[in-house]
């Protein structure tokens, strides 16, 4: 079974091919209906953002892709594989790395154990040396308990550990939330490097100034659906419109 | 003769040794309970029954198949552990989304069924299991007589406890287990098959109980009720140690065995209740247990 899932995903990494296609995605937490028909797609090597106010359904969209919410309907195609009927632990094996909003650093593991924890999902992940080169702080603190790190270091760790797994599609939820500007800037540099490595990235972001220069396209969400798509080129001319949508 | 607080040294050491042996069983059983509780959040009331089944499987294996002690020590935990995995897969998993109290009730029911069924066939008087030939006799250490089998039980229990600690604290599988205990949803999002991990964990915890049961067979009468009487004390040990730590479960188990043994020397009337007294004190002073993490 595992083998079949692996071979299905072994498409050549063609620039511009579709990595993620979400169609009419509805998601429910118990009785509450959170996503109301979300549609968007992401091409290989693209960095897109999901923007919107709190409660618009951005984090839930990422969770729904990972099958971490209750019930889902619609279609989520990753690398050509329909994943709606897949068990949660099968989905990351299609080559996805997920970084949750609360960062999810494990208190009972030290930094290096946290880093080594997620199983390899595909070949071609970064080596532990590459990761320590990209995040030197983590190397210095590799024997510390995971949750003893500062907020910024925990965020770096949460990102770093999914780079080791060979994931090619990263779903990053509010990675700059509550972090100092200098750390936000460092994270931006990391994202640029990851993009240069050909990673496909979906970024849920509150900090629009952080996201704007990095992203190829922006999707604006409201009330559990995508209401607007704005390409990087249109950004300057539509800035005011976007500010209205985001309420900033 | 050397006396310690008015008690002959040989008697004192003998009781200490008995206490340590009891403590070894407390440690093995509370370890399994702690491992299961960590990942499943279920208080496994069937744990005593699994210990009893371990002893019974060894006894019946010997009587019907001529299965010797050493093979039983190896095969019975696998067999009972396998039974545990079936219980998890086909019963506990079905109710995993409900309040954990239901898991407790289910395992309690299973324990009663196992006990009742065996009482029906074998009665409650108990049978004896012969001490394996290689472990018969004992050493005279000068200050006390040390039966070889008891020394072996202590050694085997310590090796298994430390082995378990090593697996959980120092290996990748153990890291999965610890992380799964904290946040199983995220572990699934990393591609770890958590349901499978849960099944294996329950099976492993139950196998530890069965291993203890085989170890106990030559020491105590093998009877359908041997598990339920022991389990009450083990729960007290778990409360004293706290659910938080593997090493805590082992140390508390051994320590409470010693406390019990010492009480037998100086005030035998209280020997059966002293652990519960300690439990009450610990609950009053440190509700999370000696090694538990304060909430």
Automatic annotation (TrEMBL), chain A:
<keyword id="KW-0547">Nucleotide-binding</keyword>
<dbReference type="InterPro" id="IPR052156">
    <property type="entry name" value="BCAA_Transport_ATP-bd_LivF"/>
</dbReference>
<protein>
    <submittedName>
        <fullName>Amino acid/amide ABC transporter ATP-binding protein 2, HAAT family (TC 3.A.1.4.-)</fullName>
    </submittedName>
</protein>
<dbReference type="InterPro" id="IPR017871">
    <property type="entry name" value="ABC_transporter-like_CS"/>
</dbReference>
<dbReference type="InterPro" id="IPR003439">
    <property type="entry name" value="ABC_transporter-like_ATP-bd"/>
</dbReference>
<comment type="similarity">
    <text>Belongs to the ABC transporter superfamily.</text>
</comment>
<dbReference type="GO" id="GO:0015658">
    <property type="term" value="F:branched-chain amino acid transmembrane transporter activity"/>
</dbReference>
<dbReference type="Pfam" id="PF00005">
    <property type="entry name" value="ABC_tran"/>
</dbReference>
<keyword id="KW-0813">Transport</keyword>
<dbReference type="GO" id="GO:0015807">
    <property type="term" value="P:L-amino acid transport"/>
</dbReference>
<dbReference type="InterPro" id="IPR003593">
    <property type="entry name" value="AAA+_ATPase"/>
</dbReference>
<dbReference type="GO" id="GO:0005524">
    <property type="term" value="F:ATP binding"/>
</dbReference>
<keyword id="KW-0029">Amino-acid transport</keyword>
<dbReference type="InterPro" id="IPR027417">
    <property type="entry name" value="P-loop_NTPase"/>
</dbReference>
<dbReference type="GO" id="GO:0016887">
    <property type="term" value="F:ATP hydrolysis activity"/>
</dbReference>
<keyword id="KW-0067">ATP-binding</keyword>
<feature type="domain" description="ABC transporter">
    <location>
        <begin position="20"/>
        <end position="248"/>
    </location>
</feature>
TrEMBL record, chain B:
<feature type="transmembrane region" description="Helical">
    <location>
        <begin position="143"/>
        <end position="168"/>
    </location>
</feature>
<keyword id="KW-1133">Transmembrane helix</keyword>
<dbReference type="GO" id="GO:0006865">
    <property type="term" value="P:amino acid transport"/>
</dbReference>
<protein>
    <submittedName>
        <fullName>Amino acid/amide ABC transporter membrane protein 1, HAAT family</fullName>
    </submittedName>
</protein>
<dbReference type="GO" id="GO:0005886">
    <property type="term" value="C:plasma membrane"/>
</dbReference>
<feature type="transmembrane region" description="Helical">
    <location>
        <begin position="69"/>
        <end position="88"/>
    </location>
</feature>
<feature type="transmembrane region" description="Helical">
    <location>
        <begin position="270"/>
        <end position="289"/>
    </location>
</feature>
<feature type="transmembrane region" description="Helical">
    <location>
        <begin position="20"/>
        <end position="40"/>
    </location>
</feature>
<feature type="transmembrane region" description="Helical">
    <location>
        <begin position="197"/>
        <end position="220"/>
    </location>
</feature>
<keyword id="KW-0812">Transmembrane</keyword>
<dbReference type="InterPro" id="IPR001851">
    <property type="entry name" value="ABC_transp_permease"/>
</dbReference>
<keyword id="KW-1003">Cell membrane</keyword>
<dbReference type="InterPro" id="IPR052157">
    <property type="entry name" value="BCAA_transport_permease"/>
</dbReference>
<dbReference type="Pfam" id="PF02653">
    <property type="entry name" value="BPD_transp_2"/>
</dbReference>
<comment type="similarity">
    <text>Belongs to the binding-protein-dependent transport system permease family. LivHM subfamily.</text>
</comment>
<feature type="transmembrane region" description="Helical">
    <location>
        <begin position="100"/>
        <end position="123"/>
    </location>
</feature>
<dbReference type="GO" id="GO:0022857">
    <property type="term" value="F:transmembrane transporter activity"/>
</dbReference>
<feature type="transmembrane region" description="Helical">
    <location>
        <begin position="232"/>
        <end position="258"/>
    </location>
</feature>
<keyword id="KW-0472">Membrane</keyword>
<keyword id="KW-0813">Transport</keyword>
<keyword id="KW-0029">Amino-acid transport</keyword>
């Amino acid at each position: 079974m595992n083998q079949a899932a692996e071979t299905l995903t072994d498409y050549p990494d063609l620039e511009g091919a579709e990595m993620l296609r979400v169609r009419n995605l509805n998601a429910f937490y118990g009785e509450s209906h959170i996503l109301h028909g979300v549609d968007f797609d992401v091409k290989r090597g693209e960095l897109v953002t999901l923007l919107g106010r709190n409660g618009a359904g951005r984090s839930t969209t990422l969770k729904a892709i990972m099958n971490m919410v209750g019930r889902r309907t619609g279609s989520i195609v990753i690398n050509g594989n329909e994943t709606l009927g897949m068990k949660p632990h099968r989905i990351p094996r299609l080559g996805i790395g997920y970084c949750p909003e609360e960062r999810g650093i494990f208190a009972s593991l030290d930094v290096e154990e946290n880093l080594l924890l997620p199983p390899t999902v595909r070949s071609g992940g970064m080596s532990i040396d590459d990761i320590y080169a990209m995040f030197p702080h983590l190397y210095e603190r590799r024997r510390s308990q995971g949750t003893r790190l500062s907020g910024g270091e925990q965020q770096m760790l949460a990102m770093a550990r999914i780079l080791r797994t060979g994931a090619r599609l990263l779903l990053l939820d509010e990675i700059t939330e509550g972090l100092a500007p200098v750390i936000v800037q460092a994270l931006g540099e990391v994202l640029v490097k990851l993009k240069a490595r050909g990673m496909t990235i979906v970024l849920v972001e509150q900090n629009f100034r952080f996201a704007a220069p990095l992203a190829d396209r922006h999707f604006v969400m409201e009330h559990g659906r995508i209401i607007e798509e704005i390409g990087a080129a249109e950004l300057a001319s539509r800035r005011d419109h976007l500010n209205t949508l985001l309420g900033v | 003769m050397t006396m310690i607080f008015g008690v002959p040294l040989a008697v004192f050491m003998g009781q200490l040794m008995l206490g340590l042996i009891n403590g070894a069983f407390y440690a093995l059983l509370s370890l399994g309970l702690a491992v299961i509780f960590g990942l499943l959040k279920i208080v496994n009331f069937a744990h005593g029954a699994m210990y009893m089944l371990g002893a019974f499987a060894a006894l019946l294996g010997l009587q019907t198949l001529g299965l010797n002690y050493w093979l039983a020590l190896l095969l019975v935990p696998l067999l009972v552990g396998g039974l545990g995995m079936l219980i998890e897969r086909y019963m506990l998993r079905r109710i995993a989304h409900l309040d954990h109290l239901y898991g407790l009730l289910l395992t309690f029911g299973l324990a009663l069924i196992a006990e009742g069924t065996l009482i029906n066939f074998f009665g409650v008087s108990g049978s004896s299991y012969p001490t394996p030939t290689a472990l018969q006799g004992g050493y005279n250490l000068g200050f006390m007589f040390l039966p070889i089998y008891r020394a072996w039980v202590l050694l085997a229990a310590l090796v298994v406890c430390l082995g378990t600690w090593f697996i959980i604290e120092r290996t990748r599988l153990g890291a999965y287990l610890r992380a799964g205990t904290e946040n199983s949803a995220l572990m699934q999002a990393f591609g770890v098959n958590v349901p499978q991990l849960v099944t294996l964990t329950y099976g492993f915890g139950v196998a530890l109980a069965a291993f203890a049961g085989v170890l106990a067979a030559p020491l105590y009468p093998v009877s359908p009720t041997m598990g339920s009487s022991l389990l009450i004390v083990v729960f007290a040990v778990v409360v004293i140690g706290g659910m938080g730590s593997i090493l805590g479960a082992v140390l508390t188990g051994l320590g409470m065995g010693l406390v019990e043994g010492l009480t037998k020397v100086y005030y035998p009337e209280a020997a059966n209740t002293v652990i519960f007294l300690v439990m009450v004190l610990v609950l009053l002073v440190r509700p999370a247990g000696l090694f538990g993490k304060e909430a």
